[in-house]
Amino acid sequence: MQTAAPLARALGLPVHAHPDAHEVGGLYWGAWDGERGPTPGETPAGLRAHCPDLRWPGDLSPDAPWDGGFETDDPVVHADRARRLLGDLRARHGPDDRVGLVTHQLFAQFLIAALLGSDLPSLPATLRVNNTATCAFDLRGDTVRVGWINRHDHLGGHLGGALVTA
């Protein structure tokens, strides 16, 4: 929400939360490579403090903290979730709509693989998407066109990374 809120304000658009658009592993206590367990996230009201234009999905509780999406490390689960999220976005939007999706870098790898009709074989994933990077895809027609992956020019100056295009 903290990432999406400034974009929403700048573009004059609402932010639609989606239960599948969370990082691999979800919200958890502990270390990625050690013992860990689920931890609750913010309530919708708490998230709206960061992002006033938040639209909360009807299938999630409007009052309870988000459960954090804690899940297994099984890449099949993440690949299925990526395909489900993309299917939902395609069902909700027409071919000429532009959709901005804010998610985390490891899950983004599963999204890109799903867009390209592939599965990632294991974790850590083999397709790297850098933190703060942007990626662009054109989904009109039967072919997915890659505009760019890992673009960092929004950071400017010494913070900008390499531009990788396809």
TrEMBL record:
<dbReference type="Pfam" id="PF00300">
    <property type="entry name" value="His_Phos_1"/>
</dbReference>
<dbReference type="InterPro" id="IPR029033">
    <property type="entry name" value="His_PPase_superfam"/>
</dbReference>
<dbReference type="InterPro" id="IPR013078">
    <property type="entry name" value="His_Pase_superF_clade-1"/>
</dbReference>
<protein>
    <recommendedName>
        <fullName>Phosphoglycerate mutase</fullName>
    </recommendedName>
</protein>
